[in-house]
Amino acid sequence: MHNLVRNLVDFLPQQFRVLYRQFLLRIIDLEALSIQADIPRFLGQISGVLIMFSMIHTLIAWAYLGDTEDSPPKLLSFAWHLEHHLIAMMMLVVGLIAVASWDSIFPDRRDTMILGPLPVKPSVVLAAKAAAAAAVVGLAIVTLNVAAGFAWPSVLAMRGRGPSEFLPTLASYWLTMIAASVFVYGSVLTVQGLTALLLPRRLFLLCSAFLQLAAFAVFFGVFFLQPTLTTPAEFANPSYGAFLSWAPSYWFFALFNRLRGALPENLNWLATRAWIGLAAAVAGSVFSLLLCYLRTMRKTIEQPDLLPAARGPRMNLRLGSSIEAAILAFSFRSVTRSRQHRVVFAFYMAIVLAVALSSARSFLAAAAQPLAPGFLVASFVMMSFAVLGLRSVFSLPISLTANWMLRISQLFPSWRYIAATRHALLCLTVLPVWITAALLSLHFRPWPQVAGHLIVLALLGSILADLSLIGFYKVPFTCSYLPGKVNIQFVFWGSLILFLTLGLTGARYELAALHNPVRFAWMVIALGSMAACLRAFNRYRARDAEIYFEEVPAEVITSLRLISLPSSEEAF
Question: SS3 of 522, please?
Fold first, then answer.
C-alpha cells in the first residue's frame, strides 16, 4: 500500500509536488513565524482538538442508543438535533478555515513575482493551490468525523432496520459532510473571486478586510443564533418556511435523511435546495478561480496594494504618556491594517459578538428583569475571549524585517514598554467589552446591582489582562511566533473547563453577593486585592526584564552518560 501511494505521488509532475508542499505550509503566513517553527506539530494540535469533539459526539451517540425509556417522538427529536448539530459544526469549521486561509488559493503578489518569470504554467499553480486547500479541508472533515462518522451511522442502523442499514447510512453521512464542506468553501471562494474580478486591486484588498470580518460574524452568528428545529411539526410550521429557505445547514440535514430514506415527503424541497446550492457553489468557485488566474495576475503586479493616504485633518487620540500613546496607536493600526492579525483577532471577537447577540436575544425580548446568571456568565466569557484574542495577536509580528529599528532605538527602560503594552490591552479589549456589557445591562434592574456587576467586571478585566501578560517581555507585533510552543489541546480544553467552572460558580456567588451588601464588599475587596497584587508582581518582574524579538525553542541538553565515575580504589 505504501509503495502504491508512493508510485502515485511520483507519477505527478515535479513542479506540482514542489508547489503543493509550499502552498500547504503557507496556510500559515511563513513571514510571521520563527525560523525554527514546527508547523506540522502546530497543525497536529489543532487536529487533536477536532478529534476530541468527534469523541464527544460519539459518546452522545451511544447515549442515544442506550436510551430506552423515552417515547419515539422524543428519540426522533434527539436524533434530528444531533444530526443537524454535526452538520452545522462541520460547516462552521470549514467556514472558519476558508476565511482564515482567505488568500491562500488566489494568486498574490509574491506568487506572481516569483513564479511569473519561471517556466511554470498558471494551471499548475492553480492545481497545486487547489490541492493544498483540499488537503486542509479534507483533514478537517476526517478529524472532526473520525469517530462520530462511524459511531452515528452504526447507532442509526441499530435503531433502524439493523446491520443492513449501516453501509447506506455510512455512505450517506460522509457524502453529506463532504457536500456541506464543499458548499461552504465554494461559496466563500465565489464571493472572494467575484469581488476580485469586479474591483480594482487596491479596492479589493480594502473590501477583503470587511468581508473577512463579516464572514466570521456570519458563521458564528448562524451557528449560535439560528433556531433549532427537531420535530416534523416544527418543520411544517409555515412561520419557519422563510428561515428554512435560507438555512444551508437544514438543507444538508434534509439531504442526509433523504439519502438514507428517512426524510418526510414534505421536506424533499430542502434536499433539492442542497443539491442546487452545491452545484452553484462549485460552478461559481471554478468560474471565479479560472478568471482570476487568467485576468487578475497581471493586475496584481501592475496595480499597487497601497497608495498614499489622501491629505486631510487627522485626529490622534492620545491616552496616557508618550510611550503608551505610541504603542496604543501602533497596536490599533496593526490590528486594523494587517490581514493576518485582523483575521486572528476577528475569530475571537466574532465569538464575543455571538455571545453578545445571544444575550441580547435572550434577555432583551422581555420586559426589564433582574440580573440573571446567564448574563453574568456571558459577560465573563466576552471579557475572557476579548483579552485572550488580543493577547494572542500580540505575539504575531507585523514585519520581522523592521525589528532592527526598535532594537536600536529603545529610548525608555523595558518596564515602560511592558506597562504600555498593558495599557494597550486595557484600551483595546477591556474597555470596549465593558462598554458593551454596560449597554446590554441597561435592560436589567435594580440599578445598584447592575452597577455592582459592572464594578466586578472591570476588576475581572484587569485581572485577566495582568494574568495574560505574565512573562510577556516584548513589544506587541515585533517578536516572531513559534507554532507548537504551546500545547493547543491542553490550552483549549483547560480554558474551556476553567471558563465553564469559574463562570458558573462565580455567577452564582456574585448573584448572591449582589443581594448582600456586606458579602459584595468583601468580594470587591478580594478582587481588588488580587488585581493590585498581579499588577505589582508584573511591575516588579518587568524592572529586570529585557525585551526580546525572536522566539526560540528551549535548549535541551541530553547526556549520553559515557563518563563513568572512578572506583573507590582508583580514587585513593
Answer: helix
Contact 345, 335 (CB under 8 A): yes
Buried-state track 370-390, b at ≥16 Cβ within 10 A, e below 16: ebeeebbbbbbbbbbbbbbbb
Distance in angstroms (rounded) separating the CA atoms of residues 372 and 453: 11
Please tell me the distance from the alpha carbon of residue 256 to that of residue 251, in angstroms, as a whole number.
9
Q: What ranges make up the beta strands (E) of 259-339?
A: none
Sequence ranges of the domains in the chain: 70-126+157-302, 322-542
pLDDT-derived band at 221 (thresholds 50, 70, 90) equals confident
Q: Looking at the whole model, is its pTM more than 0.70?
A: yes
Q: How far apart are CA 546 and CA 548, in angstroms?
A: 6
- How much is the pLDDT for 392? 84
Q: How many CA atoms lie within 13 A of 442 on its CB side?
A: 5
Mean pLDDT of the chain: 81
| C-alpha separations of 128 from 64, 443, 444 in Å | 43, 54, 55
**Contacts for 335-342: CB closer than 8 Å, 24+ residues apart:** 335/390, 335/393, 335/428, 336/209, 338/398, 339/102, 339/103, 339/208, 339/209, 339/212, 340/29, 340/32, 340/396, 341/393, 341/396, 341/398, 341/477, 342/209, 342/212, 342/213
At 209, list the grid cell. Answer: 478586510
Contact 328, 428 (CB under 8 A): yes
How buried is 247 (Cβ within 10 angstroms: 0-12 exposed, 13-18 middle, 19+ buried)? buried
Asked if 429 and 387 count as a contact pair (C-beta separation under 8 A), the reply is yes
Q: What angle do CA 430, 46, 474 make, to 5 degrees?
A: 45
Angle at 183 between CA 182 and CA 185, to 5 degrees: 65
417 closest CA partner among 561, 93, 425:
425
pLDDT digits (tens, 9 = 90+) for 457-496: 999 999 999 999 998 988 898 887 765 555 555 666 666 6
CA atoms within 13 A on the CB side of 368: 8
**Least confident span in 7-11, 288-292, 320-324:** 7-11
* Cβ neighbours, 10 Å, residue 365: 8
Strand 369-370, strand 444-445: pairing: parallel
Please tell me which of 159-173, 222-236, 262-276, 303-317 the model is most confident about, judged by mean pLDDT: 262-276
* 3-state helix/strand/coil string of 408-452: HCCCCCHHHHHHHHHHHHHHHHHHHHHHHHHHHHHHEECHHHHHH
Rounded CA gap, 189 and 101, in Å? 10
Long-range contacts of the stretch 136-142 (C-beta < 8 A, 24+):
136/24, 136/27, 136/97, 136/101, 137/94, 137/97, 137/181, 137/185, 139/43, 139/47, 140/50, 140/93, 140/94, 140/97, 140/181, 141/90, 141/94, 141/177, 141/178, 141/181
Cα–Cα distance between 390 and 424 in angstroms, integer? 10
Question: Is-contact 462 531, C-beta < 8 A?
Answer: yes
- Of 562, 395, 523, the closest CA to residue 468 belongs to 395
Q: How far apart are CA 466 and CA 478, in angstroms?
A: 20
